[in-house]
Amino acid sequence: MKLITAIIREVQLDKVREALIEADIKRITVSRVSGHGQQRIEEMYRGQIIIPDLIPKIRIEIGVNDAFVDITVNAILKAARTNGAGNVGDGKIFITPLEECIRIRTGERGGTAI
Predict the structure, then answer these.
(1) How far is it, in rounded angstroms, from Cα 65 to Cα 53?
(2) CATH number for the domain including 56?
(3) Full residue range of the structural domain in which residue 45 is found
(4) Residues 1, 111 contacting (CB under 8 angstroms)
(5) Overall pTM > 0.70
(6) Separation between Cα atoms, residue 19 and residue 38, nearest integer Å
(7) Phi then psi for 78, rounded to 5 degrees?
(8) Residue 60, Cα to own-chain centre: how many angstroms?
(9) Which residue from 29, 34, 39, 41 puts its CA 20 to 30 A from 53's CA?
(10) β-bridge mates for residue 35, sequence order
């Protein structure tokens, strides 16, 4: 089991969600987060150009069985790239081991709980 965490642009959320549903990945957690990396956005505020320290992003977390890791990652990659080619600020995907998953309602454990 793996936990896939993707940080993407806010405007790409609908595309990514639709791509995941098409790939038969229907259980996701979405959070609004802020951060910064190489991406720089200039905004005009009261006639002055400012560069905000933190840029709003979307964090998607998905617990998957090992067989679905590549399917999930490929769906996110295709949908999250800006203009199909990608730009600075499109985001990142992290894959971490998921030691245990327990469904609270039934008490199921492991891959069946996902």
Answers:
(1) 36
(2) 3.30.70.120
(3) 2-113
(4) yes
(5) yes
(6) 26
(7) -65, -40
(8) 3
(9) 29
(10) 55
